[in-house]
C-alpha cells in the first residue's frame, strides 16, 4: 500500500451505479472498498474491477449500523484511512398506498434513508481525520413526486434533505458533502436488465465521471446538490 493513495468506500458497489463509481475511483488511483449484502457478489465485482486497482470486497448491510461500523473498520485496517464515502446503496419498492405493505415501506426507508445515516455515522470520524468527502446518491425522485412512489419519494426526499443538512453540519470540520440526483440510469434497478433499449439513459460510467469531477474540484468550491438527467429521453 502506498501512503499517498487515498481510499474510498462505495456502498452497494457490486453492480449498477456503485460499480461504475468504483471503477472511476480506481482509475483515479484510489484504493476502493465495495460493499454488498452478499460477500460473493462483492467478491465477483472486486475480481472484475481488480485490473484497475486494489479493491476490498466487503459484506455489509446498510440497514445495520454495526455492519457499517465493521465495514469502515476493515477498510481502514486494510488501507490506513478513509477519504471518500459514496453512499449509493438503495432499492425501489413501488405501488399505490392502497397496495403497499408495511414491510415494503420499512425496507425502502431503512435502506435508502436510514442506511445512508448509518453509513455516514460510521464513517464521519475517519473522514474528519482526512478532511474527506461524502457523496450521497439520491434521485430526481427526491424533488419530483409521482403516483406509486410513496415510499421511494419519501426516502429520496428525506435523503436529499439529510444530505443538505449534514453538508452544513460538516463543512466547518473540513468534510465536504454533495448529493447527486440522477434521473433514469441504465442499471438493474427495479428488475431492469440493461441492454440496447437503455442506450438513451444515463450510463453508470457517467455517474462515475461526475463523482470524479466533484473530487477534482478546487476545495474552496462545493456543489452541494446536482441534478442530472438524460439529455434526449424518448418522446411520450
TrEMBL record:
GO terms for biological process: monocarboxylic acid metabolic process. Residues 6-202 form the Ketoreductase domain. The keyword Transcription does not apply. The keyword Lipid metabolism does not apply. InterPro entries: KR_dom (IPR057326), NAD(P)-bd_dom_sf (IPR036291), Sc_DH/Rdtase_CS (IPR020904), SDR (IPR050259), SDR_fam (IPR002347). Keywords: Oxidoreductase. It is an enzyme of class 1 (oxidoreductase). GO terms for molecular function: 3-oxoacyl-[acyl-carrier-protein] reductase (NADPH) activity. Its EC number is 1.1.1.100. NCBIfam families: PRK07326.1. This is 3-oxoacyl-[acyl-carrier protein] reductase. It comes from Christiangramia flava JLT2011.
